[in-house]
């Protein structure tokens, strides 16, 4: 297992380097000049001042020089300096990443546990009301765009049922560091989590249902039933362990999609995370900040995939034995 993990980490480092080069190249060739955007924010600038700003950020250098300088800085832990926020990109990301992780991890766990539970319950009673309800929820979740779900929830809870906050992460009058602060953040978290989890809840419920139906028809499950074991032991001790393997695999693969979905959800709900920061950076052509966010996102996805790989091996000992 140690040898396999070392190989996975080596591949992850190579992939991360490729992501850095690709991101830098794509942003470099994208239309728009960050210096002109800065000049616009300043109310205009002379050609001499534009050239001075361009030289101060190293933007007057050839592409390969800028790329090598950027890679060298990243290897030293320096993600650059934000053109717009006038502060190190690392500090900007560290300020926002907590809010994004809180949203993404909560939504993913909610979708994973609730979706799996619904799928397993519906698999045990194929033609029941619950099974049909799970099918309807899945179709609705797959069909509705995540930003549309968010806007509908905002309209519902801002106009018809005003019991939950529809924007921000915490109320301005809530004292920080108190229990009331935690409760206030939890209330603000409800709608963004429901929005982000909606599509993945549908996916996990369908996947776990199909996987459980297949496992329940296996010979070893029929043998367990023939031995007189209770339904609870057959389903949750023998069948669940194999049925959940595809769900765990897709949870790791979909982590990147959840992060990309968080960009839309954070923008709709004004959630102060990396998604909102990325959206603002794109509008202002703040390429160092955007590159830093993309680097951090790729790093998170690779770490989660390695952890999922380890979890997969712990759940299924046959993989560790190979």
Short description:
With 322 residues, the chain is mainly α.
Q: Any key phrases for this structure?
A:
single chain; mainly alpha; 322 residues
- Tally the beta strands: 0
Order of helices and strands: HHHHHHHHHHHHHHH
> How much β-strand is present in the residues?
under 5%
- Please identify the structural class as seen in this structure: mainly alpha
Summarize the biggest pleated sheet: none
List the total number of helices: 15
Question: Would you kindly provide a written description of the structure presented here, covering whatever features stand out?
Answer:
With 322 residues, the chain is mainly α. The chain is built from 15 helices and no strands. Helix 1 packs antiparallel against helix 14 and helix 11 runs antiparallel to helix 14. The longest helix is centred in the middle third of the chain and has 38 residues. It starts with a helix and ends with a helix. The relative contact order is 0.14.
Secondary structure: elements and pairs:
Elements: H1 2-29, H2 34-42, H3 47-56, H4 63-75, H5 89-124, H6 129-143, H7 146-160, H8 179-216, H9 219-226, H10 231-243, H11 245-253, H12 255-269, H13 274-283, H14 287-315, H15 317-321
Helix pairs in contact: 1-14, 5-6, 5-8, 5-12, 5-14, 6-8, 7-8, 7-12, 8-10, 8-12, 9-10, 11-14, 12-13, 13-14
């Amino acid at each position: 297992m140690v040898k396999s993990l070392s190989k996975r980490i080596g591949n992850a480092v190579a992939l991360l380097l490729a992501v850095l080069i690709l991101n830098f190249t794509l942003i470099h060739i994208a239309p728009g000049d960050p210096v002109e955007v800065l000049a616009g924010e300043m109310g205009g600038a002379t050609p001499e001042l534009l050239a001075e700003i361009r030289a101060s950020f190293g933007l007057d250098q050839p592409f390969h020089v800028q790329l090598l300088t950027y890679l060298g800085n990243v290897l030293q832990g320096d993600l650059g300096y934000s053109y717009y926020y006038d502060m190190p990109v690392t500090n900007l990301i560290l300020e926002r990443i907590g809010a994004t992780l809180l949203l993404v991890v909560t939504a993913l766990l909610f979708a994973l546990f609730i979706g799996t539970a619904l799928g397993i319950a519906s698999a045990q009673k194929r033609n029941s009301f619950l099974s049909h309800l799970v099918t309807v929820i899945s179709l609705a979740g797959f069909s509705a765009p995540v930003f549309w779900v968010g806007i509908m929830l905002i309209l519902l809870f801002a106009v018809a049922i005003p019991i939950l906050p529809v924007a921000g992460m915490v109320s301005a009058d809530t004292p920080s560091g108190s229990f009331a602060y935690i409760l206030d953040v939890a209330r603000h978290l409800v709608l963004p989590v429901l929005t982000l989890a909606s599509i993945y809840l549908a996916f996990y419920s369908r996947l776990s249902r199909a996987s459980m139906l297949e496992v329940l028809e296996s010979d070893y499950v029929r043998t367990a039933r023939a031995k007189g074991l209770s339904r609870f032991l057959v389903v949750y001790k023998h069948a669940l362990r194999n049925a959940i393997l595809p769900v765990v695999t897709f949870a790791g693969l979909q982590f990147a999609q959840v992060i990309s979905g968080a960009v839309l959800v954070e923008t709709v709900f004004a959630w102060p995370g990396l998604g909102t920061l990325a959206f603002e950076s794109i509008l202002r052509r703040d390429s160092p900040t955007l590159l830093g966010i993309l680097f951090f996102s790729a790093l998170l996805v690779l770490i989660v995939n390695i952890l999922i790989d380890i979890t997969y091996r712990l759940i299924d000992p046959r993989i560790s034995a190979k």
